Amino acid sequence: MDAIDTKIIDLLSADAKRSLADIGASVGLSPSSVNERVRRLTASGVIRRFTVDLDPVQTGMQTLVFVWIALRDDADEDAFRAYAAAHPLILECHHVTGAWSYLIKLRVGDTTRIEPFLADLKSRRFVGRSETVLALSSPVPGALVRKDDA
Amino acid sequence: MDAIDTKIIDLLSADAKRSLADIGASVGLSPSSVNERVRRLTASGVIRRFTVDLDPVQTGMQTLVFVWIALRDDADEDAFRAYAAAHPLILECHHVTGAWSYLIKLRVGDTTRIEPFLADLKSRRFVGRSETVLALSSPVPGALVRKDDA
DNA sequence: ATCCATTTCCGAAAAATATGCAGCACATGT
DNA sequence: ACATGTGCTGCATATTTTTCGGAAATGGAT
Prior knowledge:
The structure is a homodimer. By secondary structure, chain A is α+β, with helices and mostly antiparallel strands. The first copy, chain A, is 35% helix and 30% strand. Chain A has a four-stranded antiparallel sheet, covered by helices on one side. At the A-B interface, α1, β1, α4, β3 and β5 of A face α1, β1, α4, β3 and β5 of B. Chain A binds a DNA duplex through residues 19-21, 29-33, 35-37, 39.
């Protein structure tokens, strides 16, 4: 992970379809050298995968929601984590410091989808209390990338 | 955006380096047809870009932080949004419902980097109050993808 | 400083992949 | 029935990736 690797990652982040020759020209290396570096970055796990950044609107996932979760005292925490990992709407789930125990980030098509989501969480007896926060607009939206569960 | 497009996007999400022939075999189309569909998906903006998913640890951004922000009454909100968009550590910034006005998601190398970050926010007179939440672990970590600011 | 071992790089050939296009099939609306 | 538009295929071509031998650079150790 030297300066050239960093630059290669920057370039791939912006456009992973750029050719090895293009990248080579930018970093001052031959295509084969760039190839070898990308191979190593992938093998070592710095690059986890090549993927696509999608438009939330056109994929029908317009509404961004954060849900703070306080687990029930008797909740099966492992089961909750597995549930979160498998849930198609849940983009992220973090165990966090502070008054709440978990923070879930999810995307839904519209706000009507939130209530069933919360109802399901409660019916599975994971949640004690929860607090839902909607994103109204996003000065820095972040990328939309599918979960890596292949 | 028919069922085949959806499947192509699923396949590309999991591995954007898969060849057109491979994808074609999975969806029952010739390579050229897949090529044309990918071209259209990109042109129409469904696919925003091809990119890479990185390992936070190996990129030195181990610590995930959420910061709730209440802007000062006299804060220049446009300036704040521009600042957030340009800030290298800020992965996301959302205007949200609830008691706080903004939610910022950022990654830092270690917790010592948080204080300077907050200090900078305050010195620019954006922030009234703020609350910082650290992610301790992430059952669903989400992808790490660089911001699209090329 | 010199030597050796290791790594990294390059260039050229070969393999794989993407691209562009003509022609065909199918559906839609007139 | 006809014309129009759209999407698909298969082929030819262009581009890109991959491989590999040998050269250059790097990094210790003496």
